[in-house]
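Example 9 (inverse folding). The structure is encoded as follows.
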């Protein structure tokens, strides 16, 4: 009996090890094909099995040329009848491929892809997928997806199209993956069976098979959902396990309301709103729990009063005789926090200091001494607070503002300066619930939506370049009233590499495949000279990220004090710059920015007693009768001031990593989940992760141990930060 059990265990272990075995063990993989797979980042069998198709040719719904409906995306299988190369103008090549079947002829045009003529030959059997149009007596497609078919490509099936590279064709990739699936057989599933049953999801073995070679597109969708669910569940568990490990051998400070906090509440110039009070209760509730460390995300749109909520937490720290640190991404923002907060903290009897890269050597030494002795209760600062010589007597609370601008390593480096320190991270960038649950699943979330002080409000208007004078007229009117204005540009200099701009989509083409005209990009240095001539009597200065910290701070202070009328700037003013007298903003090349950035920028005006106006200049070329994605974004911006509604739309229009800079988040990459469409999966994975950790806090039970191994294998960089590898 013992031998039988041992044999079964050995067999299971062998199956479990399959994904980690080298691809050289697979048939068809040797020599140049092995090197080609390595160039694609495929080293193991598991890498290959998760090298999923980027699209599918669905022959189950293939059309003949005659039956293919106009203005619809179709798949057509036909034979190459003729190939013609044309050069309608210099540096423009058009390869026309004429496909024929028993019902007619289809003209396919490829623009600036001369290699197509070398890749195809008359007589090749080809599958093309694209939009059907009609012109000059032919049905046509422009730059479609295409696939050369061999005898094994049966009609009525679904053919996967995998990412490939030099040295390996689609046909060979399919053969190799088929061999890998045969080699892997039915490998064990790390997800507990009760979770698969509850959520109605496939086993991992079936999901991997179906994602590569589905019998229907519906089966493909079910396979992707299984992979997406596992992806979010593993990330949730990794983030939670990292925080749980932080609790080991740590005794968090129990914060209680005291005299300093009460005096701070009295010092505030307004009573807290219900949402602010709810956020304060959440935070103080976490901080009073001596059995756990606080990990909380405070979300609030522009002007919702997150700073006031944070100040209450800072004052409560002083009531325990410990210290707090507030880290901001820029010197301008850190200084603004200090200017706003220090007088209120002083009224509450809480000592504070500001430390940035521009702090003088003598002031720095004095601050370091105060932190070490405990005479400074609260430190405001930039990345400068991460320096090794910045040591606290007893740091018990870390507050990080605009946290998506910091990496996980920076966040943890500051937190490490105080054993068991509570963490409060804040963001004025509205984050959709699904994104918060998935990427910030280690953080409890509090949200403030309404403004405690409404301000005079602001309006947004999108203009084309020909109507820029409307925006300039608004600037003139504002200056005549003694008010100020911003002009925002995407570049610092005309010499800048435009490829580095964060928000530019890929090259857009018109309906005939021609590259769209590129709009002129405005640069701060050029715009400065232009505006100085247009507004000859105004004081116009510039601000951008390449200026030194002290120079930037000096410009901001002159603008705040009214010594500058028009500030020409990059998006460096996006966060935190508070000049109530600024009432007009003009954003050049609005098509170059995402909704989150545009919403943050326009939040700089209308902050005082005078209403604000934001004019967004859209220079994106749009073909006749067709709107670009940039135009859709700008129209949404014009219609609503709800930052959370805009964030949801941004999520639909752009990849989540472009919104929040996920590259900084400890290597997190979401490959399978659709943050807009998979709300149910994300919430299910979040709930299941919490349940699993309640049952087995470190996933070390017999039922969850395979899942723990998978978490460490998948998100090792996150987990190693606290698990020691």
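The amino acid assigned to each position is listed next.
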């Amino acid at each position: 009996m013992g031998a039988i059990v041992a044999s079964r265990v050995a067999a299971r272990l062998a199956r479990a090890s399959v994904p980690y075995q080298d691809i050289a063990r697979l048939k068809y993989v040797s020599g140049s094909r092995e090197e080609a797979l390595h160039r694609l980042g495929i080293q193991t069998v598991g890498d290959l099995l998760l090298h999923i198709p980027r699209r599918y040719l669905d022959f189950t719904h293939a059309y003949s040329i005659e039956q293919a409906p106009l203005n619809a995306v179709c798949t057509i299988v036909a034979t190459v009848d003729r190939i013609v190369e044309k050069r309608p103008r210099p540096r423009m090549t058009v390869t026309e491929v004429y496909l024929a079947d028993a019902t007619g002829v289809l003209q396919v045009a490829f623009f600036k892809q001369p290699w197509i003529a070398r890749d195809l030959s008359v007589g090749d059997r080809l599958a093309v997928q694209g939009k059907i149009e009609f012109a000059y007596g032919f049905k046509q497609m422009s730059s479609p997806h295409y696939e050369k078919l061999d005898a094994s490509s049966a009609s009525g099936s679904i053919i996967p199209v995998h990412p490939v590279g030099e040295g390996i064709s689609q046909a060979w990739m399919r053969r190799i993956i088929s061999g890998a699936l045969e080699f892997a057989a039915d490998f064990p599933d790390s997800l507990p069976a009760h979770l698969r049953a509850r959520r109605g999801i496939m086993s991992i073995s079936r999901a991997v098979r179906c994602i590569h070679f589905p019998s229907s597109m519906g089966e493909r969708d079910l396979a992707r959902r299984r992979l997406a669910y596992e992806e979010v569940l593993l990330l949730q568990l990794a983030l939670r396990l990292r925080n749980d490990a932080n609790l080991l051998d740590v005794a968090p400070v129990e914060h209680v309301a005291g005299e300093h906090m009460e005096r701070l509440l009295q010092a505030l110039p307004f009573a807290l709103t219900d949402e602010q009070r709810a956020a304060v209760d959440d935070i103080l509730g976490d901080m009073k729990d001596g059995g756990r460390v606080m990990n909380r995300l405070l979300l609030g749109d522009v002007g919702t009063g997150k700073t006031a909520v944070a100040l209450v937490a800072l004052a409560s720290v002083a009531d325990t005789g410990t210290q707090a640190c507030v880290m901001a991404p820029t010197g301008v923002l850190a200084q603004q926090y200090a200017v706003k907060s220090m007088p209120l903290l002083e009224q509450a009897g809480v000592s504070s200091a500001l430390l940035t890269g521009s702090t003088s050597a003598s002031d720095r030494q004095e601050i370091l001494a105060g932190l070490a002795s405990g005479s400074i209760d609260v430190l405001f600062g930039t990345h400068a607070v991460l320096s090794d010589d910045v040591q606290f007597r007893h740091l018990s609370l870390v507050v990080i503002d605009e946290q998506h601008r910091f990496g996980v390593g920076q966040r943890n480096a500051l937190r490490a300066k105080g054993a068991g320190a509570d963490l409060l991270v804040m963001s004025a960038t509205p984050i959709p619930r699904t994104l918060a649950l998935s990427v910030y699943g280690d953080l409890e979330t509090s949200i403030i939506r309404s403004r405690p002080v409404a301000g005079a409000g602001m309006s947004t208007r999108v203009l084309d370049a020909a109507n820029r004078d409307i925006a300039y007229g608004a600037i003139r009117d504002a200056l005549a009233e003694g008010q100020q204005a911003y002009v925002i540009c995407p570049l610092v200099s005309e010499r800048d590499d435009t490829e580095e701009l964060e928000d530019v989509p890929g090259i857009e083409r018109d309906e005939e495949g021609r590259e769209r005209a590129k709009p002129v990009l405005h640069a701060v240095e050029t715009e400065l000279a232009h505006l100085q001539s247009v507004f000859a009597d105004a004081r116009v200065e510039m601000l951008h990220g390449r200026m030194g910290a002290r120079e930037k701070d000096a410009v901001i202070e002159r603008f705040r004090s009214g010594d500058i009328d028009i500030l020409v700037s990059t998006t460096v003013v996006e966060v935190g710059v508070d000049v109530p007298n600024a009432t007009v903003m003009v954003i050049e090349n609005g098509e170059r920015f995402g909704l989150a950035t545009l919403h943050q920028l326009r939040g700089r005006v209308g902050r005082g007693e005078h209403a604000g106006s934001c004019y967004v200049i859209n220079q994106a070329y749009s073909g006749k009768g067709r709107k670009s994605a940039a135009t859709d974004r700008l129209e949404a911006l014009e219609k609503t001031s709800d930052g959370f509604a805009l964030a949801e739309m941004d999520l639909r229009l752009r990849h989540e990593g472009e919104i929040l800079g996920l590259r900084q988040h400890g290597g997190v990459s979401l490959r399978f989940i659709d943050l807009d469409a998979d709300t149910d999966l994300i919430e299910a994975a979040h709930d299941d992760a919490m349940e699993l950790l309640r049952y087995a806090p470190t996933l070390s039970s017999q039922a969850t141990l395979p899942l723990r191994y998978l978490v460490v294998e998948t998100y090792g960089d996150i987990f190693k930060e606290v698990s020691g590898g």
